[in-house]
Amino acid sequence: MKAVVLAAGKGTRMRDLTSEMPKPMLKVLGKPILEHILEGLIFTGIREICIITGYRAEVVESYFRNGSAWGAKISYARQLVQDGTGKAPELAKSFVGSDSFLLTYGDILVKPDTYQQMVNRFDQGPFSGLITVTPGQDVSKGGLNLFDREFCLQRIVEKPAAAQIDQFRKEGWLKPGEPVWYNAGIYIFRPDLFEFTAKLQKSPRGEYELPDAINALLAAGHRIAGLEIKGRWVDVRDPEVLASLEREQG
């Protein structure tokens, strides 16, 4: 299995911290966020990694180079236009070839064994993809994931309004006492994904959205497994989260 890491954005919510540096290169405990991610992937046995760079791409590329210092083979693809998460993976299409690949955003921190759990779950069935989720987050700020009894994905709803969530409760999608599943931003896909990212139309936000491609995969009959991330999951979204990570280890 290969890995694709999306690290093209500036991270505007980081304010002045990203004036000279892309967000994935901000340090947590003395190492860039991206280095923590790569070490987890390598720990899992994934050695071929493509990093999608964009804003201040040279900072990422000059730090990791070809990956040999980490015992990996790292290549790069540049996203020149920041037009959404749906098109970014396509830049790695030739790198992926016919292999399955783990896809992660470059600002999500999890325990290294999370990636191995993902691979194990993906290998349990004839799945075209796997999506990770975490409970207890505000789904109005991300993706709400709806699953069947086998914890296979049925639908993603991006940033649902309160009225939508109430409707899902009435329809039985969300049950009392059960978690509301928030999209955790780490996936596994077969190359089938690219058939659907190629057909994407821009969302009302003016971007190509990865959840739209995932919903299209589902509509075409593909099965996508779900996996709850247990333990550490951190979206390093703003300076406050970054500071809290440092305090945890202080």
Alpha-beta classification: alpha/beta
Shape: globular
CATH C-level category? Alpha Beta
User: End-to-end span in angstroms?
Assistant: 36 Å
Query: Oligomeric state of the chains?
Result: single chain
In DSSP terms, counting alpha (H) and pi (I) runs of 4 or more, how many helices? 8
The SSE string, one letter per element, is: EEEHEHEHEEHEEEHEHHEEH
By DSSP, the count of extended strands is 13
Q: Radius of gyration over alpha carbons?
A: 18 Å
Proportion in β-strands:
25-35%
Architecture overview:
- The protein has 250 residues and is an alpha/beta fold.
- The chain has one domain (2-248): Spore Coat Polysaccharide Biosynthesis Protein SpsA, Chain A.
- 27% of the residues lie in helices and 26% in strands.
- It is built from eight helices and 13 strands.
- The protein has helices at residues 33-43, 57-64, 93-96, 113-122, 162-170, 193-197, 210-219, 239-248, and strands at 2-7, 27-28, 31-32, 48-53, 73-78, 101-105, 108-110, 129-135, 143-147, 153-158, 181-189, 224-228, 233-235.
